[in-house]
Structure formats: C-alpha cells, structure tokens
C-alpha cells in the first residue's frame, strides 16, 4: 500500500510542485494517506527550500543541517539536549524544524542566548559552570572554552595535590570505580 501511495505521490509532486496552489492539496493527500511521522517527513522533504543548508557553522562547530534543531545543537561541546531545547524555546524556534531550515536571524538569536544565558532568564542551576573557583560566577561554557576550562581544572587539581588530581596524574580511575579486576589496559 505504501509503495502504491508513494508512486502516486511522486507523480503528483513531479507535476504539481511547480504551482503553489496545488501544494495544499498535496499536503492534505500526504497527511490523510500516511501515518503521522512518515507523512511529515515526506512533506518536509518535498518542501525543501532553496535556502536549505546541509552543514551550518555555529560557534566554530559544524552542525548537520538534516538533523532536528535540538539534536543538531548538541554537536556543540557544552550543550546538551535539555539546554538546546531550552534555548530553542527561548528563541521561539520550532523544535521540530531541521537545522538546515534556520534563517540567519534565528541562528543569531541562538548564538546570543548561548553566549549570554542569564540575560534571557535561564536559571543558574541550568548552567554547566556553577560558581567558578576564580571568579565565583555562574556561566555556560561551550565550544573551545569547554576544553580549556576542563584542562585548567585538572591542572589545578594536580597542582594542589588533591586526591582527584593525583589519580589523574597517575592515570588511574578518578571517580571511585573498582580497579582490581577492570581497567587493566590503559585505554
């Protein structure tokens, strides 16, 4: 049944997509005949615009355009799924949208929220760097800063000879795992 419907839809779309008045008929046909998730995927693939970007560059990170906005943003180091979902809602971007469909203004909004989350009323407990040991400030660390902060923290622990720092120095498990029978290879 799906194959038959797909053949008919392909014929319809190849003939009618040049005329915008027929697009509503095609979308109705797709949504009535097919299951919900499959129909929205098919309709979006038919309606792919000329401005679609397959790879976006956001905060010095390549983001895949075919993926959902929330999951595509998780490619940026320091951004998880929940934070990505929250910033999409703060920027008033549809979370079902694909990343390649974002406009330049929407991308600028996302970057602004990521760089200054406190200005957009994101709570302190949602940020990934809480009460920095030098400044005492709460912030969201992302991209290259993420690696630098992590490296600095480990170096500080080694320098003050803390237990965690020593275990990093020795190259053994740090977080309380068993070491007698597991972890015999270095990597």
Please, could you describe this protein's structure?
The structure is a single chain. With 187 residues, the protein is mostly helical. The protein contains eight helices and two strands. Strands 1-2 form a two-stranded antiparallel sheet. Strand 1 (55-58) and strand 2 form a beta hairpin. Helix 1 runs antiparallel to helix 2 (23-33) and helix 2 (23-33) packs antiparallel against helix 3. It is extended, with a radius of gyration of 24 Å.
- Sheet with most strands: strand arrangement: 1-2
In this structure, how is the largest beta sheet organized? 2 strands, antiparallel
Count of DSSP helices? 8
Helix content: 40-55%
Radius of gyration equals 24 Å
Beta-strand content bin? under 5%
Q: How far apart lie the N and C ends? A: 51 Å
Structural class: mainly alpha
Morphology = extended
Q: Low-confidence stretches at least 5 residues in length (pLDDT < 50)?
A: none
Mean pLDDT: 83
What is the fold's blueprint, element by element?
Layout: H1 2-16, H2 23-33, H3 36-46, E1 55-58, E2 61-64, H4 69-73, H5 81-90, H6 104-115, H7 143-159, H8 163-170
Antiparallel strand pairs: 1-2
Helix pairs in contact: 1-2, 2-3, 7-8
What are its keywords?
mainly alpha; two-stranded antiparallel sheet; 187 residues; single chain; 2 strands
Give a short synopsis of this structure.
With 187 residues, the chain is mainly alpha-helical. It has helices spanning 2-16, 23-33, 36-46, 69-73, 81-90, 104-115, 143-159, 163-170, and strands spanning 55-58, 61-64.
